[in-house]
Design brief:
Layout lengths: L10 H16 L6 H16 L2 H12 L30 E10 L2 E10 L5 H14 L16 E10 L6 E10 L10 E6 L10 E6 L5 E6 L4 E5 L12 E6 L2 E10 L6 E6 L2
Antiparallel strand pairs: 1-2, 2-3, 3-4, 5-6, 6-10, 7-8, 7-11, 9-10
Helix pairs in contact: 1-2, 2-3
Length: 271
């Protein structure tokens, strides 16, 4: 997936942001990861091809996940085990960090976290599943690079009226160990809040799980404060918030939307 706005890269890429936001709203923050990805995966597969409807029905009837084309069941892809606590590496864990309104449209910052494959077979299938969503992991291109590593994608989506959603990749990585900021440590990524703007008016950042407040400063001299949202609370429109992300237990993430057309100046953990 490129780091540009777009809505003409095929069905999978056109609908990524909407599917992410839809799944994240259905599965509230704090839900058990396995339950979240199975429910989210069933809904996406049902939309993608008719065969998935039968597979989802089999899941409900038998209580197990049935293989569908390139997305096999949790228990058949690797000899590492078949327990219920085993991550489903062919479906991402999805969350929404925040959302709001601007210029008559709705923006959101959505997340996919892909659990680490255990062997090359899982890695090959995971890479194909990522491609089905329109994503390319940060690797050399070899599926073996995914073994033992978690991959994540943060995406800004913008939808206005009946237009197709437009999205932009904010940040992504493939890592053996998820980042774990400490104290007031902060990592910041900036992007335009809307597709037709060049102003860096959206801030997405990573902070320690102990952080309770982040203040974003803007070039016009104003500031926006993001507070930590309690676990298991639904997504509500807001210009700033800090949230936990399913599948990313080592850090929390925040969003700040600039007032008006001003741009990012700085951000800091203030509590």
């Amino acid at each position: 997936m490129t780091n540009t706005d777009g809505n003409g890269h095929g069905m999978a890429q056109d609908r990524i942001a909407l599917l992410l936001a839809d799944a994240a709203r259905e599965i509230e923050t704090g839900a058990a990861p396995v339950t979240a990805v199975v429910r989210g995966g069933r809904r996406r597969r049902a939309r993608r091809l008719t065969a998935a409807v039968a597979a989802a029905a089999a899941v409900l009837t038998c209580g197990t996940v049935t293989a569908v084309n390139e997305l096999p069941d949790r228990g058949s892809a690797s000899p590492a085990g078949t327990g219920a606590d085993r991550p489903l590496v062919y479906e991402p864990v999805m969350s929404t960090v925040g959302e709001g309104t601007r210029d008559g449209g709705t923006w959101s910052v959505n997340v996919q976290v892909w659990p680490a494959p255990r062997d090359r077979g899982e890695a090959v299938r995971q890479m194909k599943a990522m491609a089905d969503w329109g994503f390319t992991p940060v690797t050399s291109g070899s599926p073996s690079d995914l073994i033992g590593k978690t991959t994540y994608f943060f995406i800004r989506a913008f939808e206005k009226g009946g237009e197709s959603a437009r999205f932009r990749l904010v940040t992504s990585d493939t890592v053996a160990g998820l980042p774990s900021p400490k104290g007031t440590g902060i990592n910041v990524f900036t992007k335009p809040l809307t597709p037709d703007s060049d102003a860096q008016s959206l801030v997405v950042g990573m902070v320690a799980t102990t952080a309770r407040q982040v203040t974003c400063h803007w070039k016009d001299g104003s500031a926006t404060t993001a507070e930590l949202a309690p676990a298991n609370t639904p997504i509500r429109p807001s210009d700033a918030v800090i949230r936990s992300v399913r599948g990313f237990p080592t850090a929390n993430w925040f969003v700040c939307a600039a007032p008006g057309s001003t741009s990012y100046k700085s951000a800091e953990v203030t509590k």
